[in-house]
Write a structure and sequence with these properties.
DUF4429, PH-domain like, alpha+beta, SHOCT, 289 residues, 4-stranded antiparallel β-sheet, Tat pathway signal sequence domain protein, single chain, 8 helices, 26% helix
């Protein structure tokens, strides 16, 4: 077991999964504490890296696209202190952090690190709720409730509590506030108008202050996304890549390595990805006669 423990929490990797346990320190972000312990299958992880810094640095786990409902919802917009897949590392834990990175790097993973078509993590535990200035938003697995406060616009208060069955929700949009620009948590409901301003949209909650409580709405969004029925038909298969294009990419990668832009490890990883793409083509090409 490779393990790193800091004030922010503990990461442990046993070859099968990365266990992320948030710390109890008062400085640990509310979102991390509310999310609780995560068990991330190795198959869901694209990579783990250690980023050196003046006071130790940080571990960062990069999940495969489509594997985690929370990562899909936030789209990289969580502040660092709220990101459960980043762990600040004390100087005394740097050796352990390096060991954890190496342990993951040398773990065989037949699945690769590309996108996946289904979630490999279950999403936040239920029930889940968040309180912001204009509403309490909650989800119990079967319905979303939007309970308006006195600070909500008149049109929302007059409408009363909104109840959205999960089978009517087709998508969720989440965006935190930034500077003077409001954020929003919006539930896209079948047959509803998509062109309603957040101040009037009965299926949307404005996020205005950038507080830790507002960021908790990301957990509600992720829990809903994790449970939206995914019964849409499979997309048609993509056309196989052109071999000439792939050969040109290999030559370009070699040039980047020779010029020092890519390290040998980076070149090897990129070349491997290109060669995997070639397997979609008939390779080597058939010979005449």
């Amino acid at each position: 077991m490779a393990e790193v423990t800091t004030a922010e929490g503990t990461w442990g990797f046993d070859g099968a999964a990365l266990r992320i346990t948030p710390g109890t320190d008062r400085k640990v972000h509310k979102l991390r504490k509310a999310l609780g312990e995560l068990v991330v299958p190795a198959a869901a992880i694209a990579g783990i890296s250690y980023e050196p810094g003046k006071k130790g640095g940080a571990l960062r786990a990069r999940l495969r696209e489509g594997a985690d409902p929370l990562s899909q919802v936030v789209g990289g917009h969580l502040p660092e202190q709220a990101n459960p897949y980043r762990l600040a590392v004390d100087p005394a834990q740097v050796v352990n952090a390096d060991y954890l990175v190496e342990a993951f790097r040398f773990t065989p993973r037949a699945e690769g690190d590309g996108p996946v078509g289904r979630f490999l993590l279950p999403g936040p535990a239920l029930p889940v709720s968040a309180t912001v200035s204009e509403a309490v938003v909650s989800f119990d697995g079967s319905r979303v409730l939007l309970e308006w406060s006195w600070q909500a616009p008149d049109v929302k208060r007059r409408s009363g509590t909104q109840e959205l069955p999960i089978d009517k929700v087709t998508a969720v949009v989440w965006r935190p506030s930034s500077g003077l620009t409001d954020g929003v948590l919006r539930f896209i409901v079948r047959d509803a108008s998509p062109n309603v301003a957040p101040t009037s949209d009965l299926h949307a909650v404005r996020l205005t202050w950038g507080t830790e409580n507002e960021l908790l709405t990301a957990l509600v969004a992720a829990a809903v996304v994790a449970r939206i029925p995914r019964s849409r038909p499979d997309a048609p298969a993509a056309a196989p890549p052109d071999v000439d294009v792939l050969m040109r990419r290999l030559r370009e990668l070699g040039d980047l390595r020779d010029s020092g832009v890519l390290t040998e490890d980076e070149f090897t990883a990129a070349k491997r990805a290109v060669l995997r793409s070639m397997s979609a083509e008939e390779w080597p090409p058939p010979q005449d006669g």
